Amino acid sequence: MDKFSDYPTSLTAPARDAAAVVPSDAADLPVLPRALYVGVSGDISARLAGGQAVLFRNVPSGSVLAVRARGVNATGTTASGIVALW
């Protein structure tokens, strides 16, 4: 039983869905996520929802980046095991 099923999903609520991220310099993620989980540490080169490009350096494994990334670039991304959360 889900006692919270009647509550709206917000940016601060726990994620309800997730999908593995395949970094690509051209393709956007199929869903605009609320955050990215990083399984293996490294750098993440992301294209944010607002259009900005940003490089997150030395992101530790197990981190959750609270960013709305429309894409993760293959070029410049050394982290792996990235999961989009929404």
Structure in words:
The mean pLDDT is 94. A hairpin with a 4-residue loop joins β3 and β4. The protein is an all-beta fold and 86 residues long. A four-stranded antiparallel beta sheet has the order 1-7-2-5, with no helix packed on it. The chain has a three-stranded antiparallel beta sheet with strand order 4-3-6, with no helix packed on it. It starts with 17 loop residues before the first strand and ends with a strand.
Beta-strand share of residues: 35-45%
Order of helices and strands: EEEEEEE
Mean pLDDT: 94
N- to C-terminal distance: 21 Å
As a percent range, the share of helical residues equals: under 10%
Q: Strand count, sense and closure of the main sheet?
A: 4 strands, antiparallel
Q: Which regions have little confidence, pLDDT < 50, spanning 5+ residues?
A: none
Shape: globular
Number of helical runs?
Answer: 0
User: Using DSSP, what is the number of strands?
Assistant: 7
What integer value in Å does the Rg equal?
A: 13 Å
Give the strand order, joined by hyphens, for the main sheet: 1-7-2-5
Oligomer: single chain
Content-based structural category: mainly beta
Topology:
Blueprint lengths: L17 E3 L14 E6 L1 E7 L4 E7 L3 E3 L3 E4 L7 E6 L1
Antiparallel strand pairs: 1-7, 2-5, 2-7, 3-4, 3-6
